[in-house]
Write the structure tokens for this entry.
Amino acid sequence: MKKAFVTGWPISHSKSPALHGFWLNKLDIAGSYEALPVSSENFPDFLSTLGNSEWVGGNVTIPHKETAFSLIKNCDAAAKAIGAVNTLWIENGDLMGGNTDAYGFSANLDDFAPQWRECSTALVIGAGGASRAVIYALAEAGIEKIRIANRTVSRAQNLSDHFGPACTAHGLDETSDLLADTDLLINTSSMGMSGENTDQVVDVSRLAATSIVTDIVYTPLMTPLLAAADQCGLKTVDGLGMLLHQAVPGFEKWFGARPEVTEELRQRILGVA
Ligand code: ATR
């Protein structure tokens, strides 16, 4: 039986076991996917034993994504650009690291707002780890202007320098002015997660009527930003689909079948506490 895992610290709240468990069941595959708590102290040893273990691979989440990238020799292009690994697999005995977050972000928009690929100016709020995957996805899709606005401007500047000439860095105080010609707005910051209101920072009524607004935060599903955008009649895409889609390439590598992201799966994962 093939066995895969998700490791993080803590890991008990991860929805990944329910997600992969759903697919294993649906596709009638004799495999398992379990949550494996590994502390930061033990993570390097854990990685070094994987090539000769019972595991076929797994996912890596907070706080190990950047450490995994720094320790794994064989990383895919996305992991290299993003500087973080979220998916591990074994190839000819070698441990491989990949990053599927950017794929998950793009596939979610492809599902719910496929016209996003026609957008010319994106505004990304936030410049943390999650923002890197989003900016990589936007650059890969050929979005002409990628504006990064963050509370700490130096972090936005670092990302802008890293991802190249399509990007510019801004403070949050500039967002109002930037909104007028933004056609794709993405929140990657943790604002809104703790009940804080993003609408003090982002006045979505300044966006053109055809703009798309998405939030990669999915707890709550309807973030204050999405609620405000919805009230203005704008197209909104919640962040749950990014979680669901980022899991597809890993599942396929470990278990040999490409699973589908469906409404049934969405509803099942929404019901997981
Ligand atoms: P992640 O890896 O999930 O992106 P992170 O690296 O801690 O997490 O980044 C969180 C992001 O949310 C950052 O852009 C952070 O802004 P700073 O770089 O200035 O810290 C942003 N953020 C968190 N709380 C915020 C708040 N109350 N107001 C504005 N931005 C906030």
Remarks:
- The longest helix spans residues 101-112.
- The first strand starts at residue 2 and ends at 8.
- DSSP finds twelve helices and twelve strands in the chain.
- The chain has a mean pLDDT of 95.
